[in-house]
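Notes from hallway chat w/ T.B., transcribed later so I don't forget. T.B. wanted the structure written out for a chain they're using in a teaching module, and asked if we could keep both sequence and C-alpha cells in one place. Agreed to drop them here.
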Amino acid sequence: MRETGRYGVEARLKKQVALAGGATRKFVSPGRPNVPDQIVIWPRVVLVTPRVERIEAEIHFVETKAPGKSARGGQKREHKRLRKLGCQVFVLDTKERIDAYIEANR
C-alpha cells in the first residue's frame, strides 16, 4: 500500500480501522466546505444489566493529510466549530499517528 501522500494515509486509516473492528465513511458535505475527510465509527459495548448488552457508536471526525502537512485555515476553523459542539476531531498525517489513534480506540 502506498503510504505517501494524503490518499496513502487515508487508505491506511481505513484499513487499520476495519482491522480493529470499526468502520469509516467518506465525509462530504455539499455547501459546507472544509469538513473532515472521514467519519470513523467505533462500536462500544455497554452493559445495561448483568445479562444485557447494548452497542453504542462512538463517532470521530478525521482529517487525513499528507505526511508533514497540517490542516488549512478553513479546516482548522471547522474543526474548532465541531469541537465546540462536543465532537472529537483528529488530524492524522503519518503511519505512526494512525497507529497511535487505532491503539487508543481499540
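Follow-up for T.B.: The two ends are 22 Å apart (CA to CA). Might be a good example for the class.
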